[in-house]
Design a protein that fits this description.
Number of strands: 38
Shape: globular
Helix content: under 10%
Number of helices: 2
Length: 536
């Protein structure tokens, strides 16, 4: 922000997020305590001297540099109406910190920061996080209000209702601005699922998002061209929301207000009512069971007990821990045995069909007859893949759609041994990149022509639609599975590969011991494996 100094020059105030101590990922100990540092948010004053600017200087409060939590968005304004400039900061999470100027306009002296409460006595917080407050007298009543943006693009008015005898400024809780009808949007990383939720004969859209809510867009005209505003779903009588809290995100406490809900809909308990299966920022599958009294939430009942991915500090066995975080739990009868299966990534990122009829789950093979692994990464980089199941090419076999710039088609080409299937990765179904961070595909048939059309949720809140016939059309040759590549037998048992990674190592030294004769035999293989591990 620009700030006119007491002398009349335009100085610059800069808020800087510093994540160097946080390091972002996988740092809980066995007692669920975060071992890295916090996010920092420094505020700098860059004073103007003539035509030049001085070096940035950190603004201090109570004798120490001001340090908000990662995303300060500083605002200097007279919040308490005493004639000098106070400081109010946002943060990477959801709250506000106030630094009272106990000095003067010409010689400011800032007291230690204090968290603000709303006029209702509750903590003054936004619905989401990564907030960006801007001070302005919005209602022109002579005091400084706040216009605040959330991570997902929504904007709220936080009205100043300060009383003259109050110790701290007082603000009303955020009231979000509404706009006239526009594109369908439901928060960052929207995860749509097309389904006739109200059972009126047309497909609605049920959608999750970063905030951890789920909402329904009702198909008003039955054609998919006129929609209701999103209506938040309730479970057990309260608005449904999943949030990580201070220690339930693998990426640390800075994600406390995120939920990353992703879902599918099916009659999981065969009672004639459609339920919602939910995955989220936790790798814990939740069941929103549909009852005559509305939705009720509980862990997803399953037929096996498993542990979460190995990189989580807690390794408790439970029946709803079959997957990684942020990846779709797709309920469908994939093996056509009359019972619902769960098509989902397992704890190691392999695409699986969890079926009541068999113990083997990694039934999806690529063209080289290896299990399809959609994400081999760990911790915060794991999971994330969104799925849809549909007979895209009308050949009578269920295909898989996955996250990409829009949606990638994996064609179900043919059966393999042991009741497995061979998938061929065909490519994107559309040319436009709508993903941002990631995408979330689902299929629909709004016009009822029997051809599945594509809806894609994106990072920018929006839902994108493309008709089947407008998608990329691949040739018959392009969608056929090739024969698997054959591998020559090893020159001796145990040899994986004997090619050189390089002839002249770019490293100063290799720490693989030459003293062990086993390592001497497998020098090339072991060194290559070490370099792979180091690169992670």
């Amino acid at each position: 922000m620009l700030l006119r100094s007491y002398g009349g020059d335009q100085d610059i105030i800069a808020g800087i997020g510093d994540w160097s101590d946080y390091e972002w990922d996988h740092a809980y100990d066995s007692q669920d305590r975060w071992q890295n540092g916090p996010l920092h948010g420094w505020v700098y004053l860059i004073k103007k001297h003539g035509d030049d600017y001085a070096d940035p200087v950190r603004v201090k409060a109570a004798g120490r540099p001001i340090d908000a939590y990662g995303w300060p968005s500083p605002n200097f304004a007279d919040f308490d109406s005493d004639g000098d400039l106070d400081l109010l900061c946002g943060e990477f999470l959801d709250g506000f910190t106030y630094f009272k100027n106990t000095g003067t306009r010409a010689k400011p002296n800032y007291a230690a920061g204090r968290r603000l409460e709303g006029a209702d006595g509750e903590s003054l917080v936004m619905h989401l996080q990564m907030i960006t407050p801007t001070a302005i007298d919005w209602d022109r009543d002579g005091d400084m209000d706040l216009i605040v943006g959330d991570e997902d693009g929504r904007v709220a008015l936080v009205e100043n209702v300060f009383a003259e005898d109050a110790e701290l400024p007082a603000f009303n809780q955020p009231v979000y601005f509404q706009q006239q009808a526009d594109e369908l949007k439901f928060g960052a990383l929207a995860t749509p699922f097309a389904h006739d939720w109200d059972q009126d004969g047309d497909e609605d859209i049920v959608c999750g998002n970063t905030a951890g809510n789920i909402a329904v867009f009702t198909n008003i005209d039955g054609k998919g061209s006129k929609w209701s505003t999103p209506k938040l779903l309730k479970a057990d009588g309260e608005t449904f929301r999943i949030m990580a809290g201070p220690n339930d995100s693998i990426q640390g406490p800075a994600e406390a207000k995120w939920g990353y809900t992703t879902l599918s809909i099916a009659d999981w308990d065969s009672d004639g009512q459609d339920d919602i299966l939910v995955n989220s920022i936790w790798p814990k599958l939740q069941w929103l069971r549909n009852t005559e009294n509305g939705l009720t939430q509980q862990p997803l009942p399953f037929w096996t007990n498993e542990a979460p991915p190995a990189f989580y500090w807690w390794q408790t066995l439970a029946e709803n821990l079959q997957t990684q975080w942020r990846t779709t739990p797709l309920a469908t009868d994939f093996d056509a045995d009359g019972k619902l299966d769960l098509v989902i990534l397992d704890q190691e990122g392999y695409l699986t069909c969890q079926s009541r009829a068999r113990e083997e789950t990694r039934v999806f093979l690529d063209e080289d007859l290896s299990p399809v692994r959609l994400n081999s990464r760990t911790a915060g980089s794991s999971g994330r893949v969104k799925l849809a199941v549909v007979d895209w090419d009308a050949d009578g076999r269920l295909d898989i759609l996955t996250t990409s710039e829009n949606a990638t088609s994996w064609r179900n080409c043919k059966d393999a041994e042991d009741d497995k299937v061979i998938l061929k990765k065909i490519g994107n179904l559309a040319k436009r990149n709508v993903a941002g961070h990631t995408s979330s595909p689902t299929v629909c048939d709004f016009d009822g022509n029997g051809k599945p059309d594509l809806i894609v949720g994106s990072e920018n809140d929006r839902l994108y639609f493309i008709k089947h016939d407008d998608c990329i059309q691949y040739t018959a040759e392009q969608i056929q599975a090739r024969p698997p590549h054959t591998m020559k037998p090893p020159r001796f048992p145990g040899l994986v590969k004997d090619d050189f990674i390089f002839r002249k190592a770019p490293h100063k030294e290799c720490h693989a011991s030459r003293a062990n004769p086993l390592i001497q035999i497998f020098t090339q293989v072991l060194i290559a494996q070490r370099f792979r591990n180091d690169s992670k």
